[in-house]
Specification:
This protein is about 15% helix and about 35% strand. It has helices at about 15-20, 35-45, 60-65, 90-95, and strands spanning about 1-5, 25-30, 50, 70-75, 75-80, 100, 110, 115-120, 135-140, 145-150. Strands 3-2-1-9-10 form a five-stranded mixed β-sheet, covered by helices on one side. A five-stranded mixed β-sheet has the order 4-5-6-8-7, with no helix packed on it. Strand 4 and strand 5 form a beta hairpin. The longest helix has 7 residues, at about 15-20. The radius of gyration is 14 Å and the shape is globular. The N and C termini lie far apart (about 35 Å).
Length: about 160
């Protein structure tokens, strides 16, 4: 079993509580709107990082990240993109077990046609009254398990 830390929409702000919540993960996925390369550098202190760019990632240091990524964990394929509305493939037909996305700042988990759709929410600056969150995804032989973790120092 491997644990994947999932984070999105940091917009240049990486809270110590987010790092703590992702501690112990085997790898980290950032689903876009990184905001600054320092975010990725800090996440790399926890383990390997797979990141995609989001709609605000226009500055040179983060604009070079790909729009999508495929990550393989424990023989399972994860498809990562920032905005779920830009998903231009059928995850079932493509063999993906998990689709990870961000953009809305709203954490969510949903199973559609056997595929887990996971949005970790936003770990960056608070937006409206939405919680500040990250997610932990456990992948092994069975069905992937998710946990949305609300960040305590979100003040």
């Amino acid at each position: 079993m491997k644990t994947v830390g999932v984070i999105s929409d940091t917009h240049g702000l990486l809270r110590p509580a987010a790092l703590a919540a992702l501690g112990g993960c085997d790898l980290i996925v950032h689903a876009g709107d990184i905001g600054a390369s320092g975010v990725i550098e800090a996440l790399r202190q926890l383990g390997p990082v797979f990141a995609v760019r989001g709609n605000v990632d226009r500055e040179r240091d983060v604009a070079d990240y790909p729009a999508t990524q495929v990550v393989e964990v424990e023989g399972r394929l994860l498809f990562v993109l920032h905005d779920i509305h830009e998903l231009d493939l059928d995850p079932v037909a493509a063999g993906f077990q998990v689709v990870i996305f961000g953009h809305s700042h709203q954490p969510s988990t949903e199973i559609r046609r056997g595929v887990l759709y996971l949005n970790p929410g936003s770990a960056g600056p608070r937006r409206f009254h939405l919680p500040v969150t990250v997610a932990r995804l456990r992948i092994g032989a069975g069905t992937p398990e998710t946990e949305i973790v609300e960040i305590e120092d979100a003040g």
